[in-house]
Amino acid sequence: MRLTLIAFCLMCSTASFGQTASVLTNDPQPMTIADHPGHASQHELATPQSILDDSSYSYEKGERPISEFAAPGPQPTALGDIARAYRKAHASVPKAGFIFEK
Fold this sequence. Notes:
By secondary structure, the protein is mainly α.
């Protein structure tokens, strides 16, 4: 009981200090955004810099069709051809010799 009372008093005292402590002021402080007028003006481009270790590389301009890069994929089989193959396989399977009926 004594321990509970001490813990309750400690909790109430910390809560009261938290309510009275003025951490932030209530005065509004308008936000100021830094102005960078040099970014909007027109100027010369910087000299190109290579980010590669070896600067002896070449490149070409233009477009190449995607068919030159992609490997030819498997051609889809028509559904009719699949059905004919199943029908032929079903016809070649031997039928049951004895039919059991109850």
